[in-house]
Amino acid sequence: MATAAAAATRRSVFLGVDVGTGSARAGLFDEEGKLLGSASSPIQIWKEGDCVEQSSTDIWHAICAAVKAACSLANITGEDVIGIGFTATCSLVAVDADGSPVTVSWSGDSRRNIIVWMDHRAIKQAKKINSSNFPVLQYCGGAVSPEMQPPKLLWVKENLRESWSLVFRWMDLSDWLSYRATGDDTRSLCTTVCKWTYLGHAHMQQCEKDSRDMEACGWDDDFLEEIGLADLVDGHHAKIGRSVAFPGHPLGTGLTPVAAKELGLIAGTPVGTSLIDAHAGGVGVIESVPDSETEDKENDKEAICHRMVLVCGTSTCHMAVAQSKLFIPGVWGPFWSAMVPEYWLTEGGQSATGALLDHVIENHVASPLLANRAASQSVSVFELLNKMLESLKHDLNTPFLAALTESIHVLPDFHGNRSPLADPQAKGVICGLTLDSSEKRLALLYLATVQSLAYGTRHIVEHCNAHGHKIDTLLACGGLAKNPLFLQEHADIIGCPIILPRESESVLLGAAILGAVAAKKYSSLREAMRAMNAAGLVIHPSNDPRIKKYHDAKYRIFRELYEQQLAQRSIMADALA
């Protein structure tokens, strides 16, 4: 009786684990989605030209450290955690039959068994795949990106033959994490559909509430054979996934004893099928609307289709769902059940956003001085730049802050254009440079870069709406969503309100929601989202017509910068022909 009473009074705590580009993070949440505690641990990364690599062994050690630290900080015991979810970047992991790492690096270093999501080594392979015009390409905006897995797999096959022959499992990083935790090789509909050209709608007759492992019947074998990956068809696709499941589906018998010991948790704790990090951000935020908006629309399946989630970190992902499939050139999808089960996902993106702002700031001659001043004032560089812009507006008597950049125009495609142009060869442009190398000039360049990112998002939203979406509300999460200037410029430029979630750690919450579904606390992912998402601050666009007119003019220049680049590319190609 005592044991039963203890179980009845046990706290319902859900653990979300997220592996980003630079760190592994763990967050603990209650059943209402409130953050109880979190911790992070850095992870190693190797960058050499277009090649970016990591180590699955290093990542697992970092996860274990982060989970133990989060539990300690929140005063949570392993017994309190009743469900776990994993999320990660869409990086590619290679392991052998024993689960040991297989190198994917020119260096031959066996630790380096992950091709990181941002790696662009496979541009040539992506071009080759796209020339096939296979029907599956319709479901990723008409073309695969070098950031997706088929081009990367083809690169390894063509360049690292020994590694290719040794690999027993190729896995998306978040699927590898849940496999490492449970021993269950079932893949997520999120990872396989979004990054591997798996056709999730092969399962449209199957319902999330009848949750089970489903035989992987969505692989297009003809496509794999045509592009040179016929050997991945062998053994019912054993190397890339024989079974798939809806996100949040409970895997195996939960945590294995080995993984439980490493994490400081209890063997058998339910683990949910994983999500890619951006998609977990979507799950953690898309139902975070003010109560007044949910009263009339609680059961309205269409309400969620008016929202787009911006997951803004190193890069930005733009996630929107629809009840019917919408084919949008240059935008990934439609992906069935890849984020919200039984909805079609459209996924736009910008390959460098936080990374671009860091690059622009850190490569400016005034950067060291600015960093020292920020440190001495115990504020971030962004906070200092935002303050400087307010001062400049006052000193120059500018009608509104955005007008400070009337002579500086930026095209932010420093790492190619993911959406809606799908041009990995696009380059960045800064128009309006002078010999002024002061901190004030850096502040203006920073503002112009923030605006350029917002113009890129406006281009994506307009393009999606022109092809059938009805997006009128944005929800933002991730590191950049903590920057008020970034948010206000986006609201003004796109003309939509931006809702922030109550909890700032939306990706971790999305991962924890997977654990809550796996633990059967909620009957579906959508039910768990409604229970654990909550709205915070709402940023409204300016109603000043001068600001709208200004941004419309700058947006026109923004669009022209790319057209000019295409013309210049053509002129130079002719010159070298």
Automatic annotation (TrEMBL):
Domain Carbohydrate kinase FGGY N-terminal, first and last residues per copy: 14-284
Annotated keywords: Kinase, Transferase
Domain Carbohydrate kinase FGGY C-terminal: residue ranges: 309-519
Pfam families given in the database record: FGGY_C, FGGY_N
GO MF annotation list: kinase activity
Statement: the UniProt record of this protein carries the keyword Kinase: yes
Recorded superkingdom: Eukaryota
Family, as annotated: Belongs to the FGGY kinase family.
UniProt xrefs under PANTHER family: FGGY CARBOHYDRATE KINASE DOMAIN-CONTAINING PROTEIN, RIBULOKINASE
Protein name: FGGY carbohydrate kinase domain-containing protein
Originating species: Eucalyptus globulus
